[in-house]
Amino acid sequence: MVADSLVYHPTVAHYIRFVSSTAGRDKALRTLQYLARFLSFYLLRKGYKMDVIAPFEAIKKQFASTRKVMRIGKNIEHFKAASQAMDNKSLDPVLRYCAVGRQLGYFTYLTFDSLSFLDSSGIYKFTAGKKLAAEAYRAWFVGLIFSLVGGAYTLYTLRERERGIVKTIAEGKVEGEKLVKERQATVTQMISDVCDVTIPASALGYVALDDGIVGMAGTVSSLIGLQAIWKKTA
């Protein structure tokens, strides 16, 4: 039957694995959140009425709140990752400290982000509620900078390794192909980080970017993350 063919299709099984993961749902919601942020700004600039813009504003706000709830407790994951990176003495010292800085930045960001949500949702009001949100953005910004520095250093080391490869030998060709894949993964991650860094940088006033640019940048980084998780759940 047609119904059976659809139900038991491998793509359906893949989709179920994807939406069953918290990371998969988060990236899907994040993509829609930042796309709505872009569309809301675009439609406003084009002069559309508020009843047309309102649904996108609602998606932006509600999905942002939903994702904050989903992230509660995730800070411990990054604290553990920071500890593991610090203990990994076999890792290049520069990459090790960049990894530690990145993970501690994300840990601090998610910690303040959860506290900020408690304040904004009215569950528990803090006297410095707005400051919590600012500190969360600042920690995220620092974590992303560490990630970008680590990415730039990785590209440098990959280039140095590539110079020492004899590409005429079979083993050299295999190593060369491996380096190409590592470079592609690093560049993709750096593109995602550059897009993401516009969000805290704009919120903190470090750069003057409108919601259209931030929304599009967030959409691009979300799609990169969405694709990565889709592949992992294959």
From TrEMBL:
Where does this protein have coiled-coil stretches?
A: none
Sorted UniProt keywords: Membrane, Peroxisome, Peroxisome biogenesis, Transmembrane, Transmembrane helix
Q: Which InterPro entries match?
A: PEX11 (IPR008733)
| Gene Ontology annotations for the cellular component aspect, listed alphabetically | peroxisomal membrane
Give the source's domain of life in one word: Eukaryota
Question: Where in or outside the cell?
Answer: Peroxisome membrane
Ranges that cross the membrane: 139-158
Q: Output the Pfam families linked to this UniProt entry.
A: PEX11
Q: Which GO terms describe its biological process?
A: peroxisome fission
What is the protein's name according to its record?
A: Peroxisomal biogenesis factor 11
Name the source organism: Morchella conica CCBAS932
Task: Show the taxonomic lineage.
Answer: Eukaryota, Fungi, Dikarya, Ascomycota, Pezizomycotina
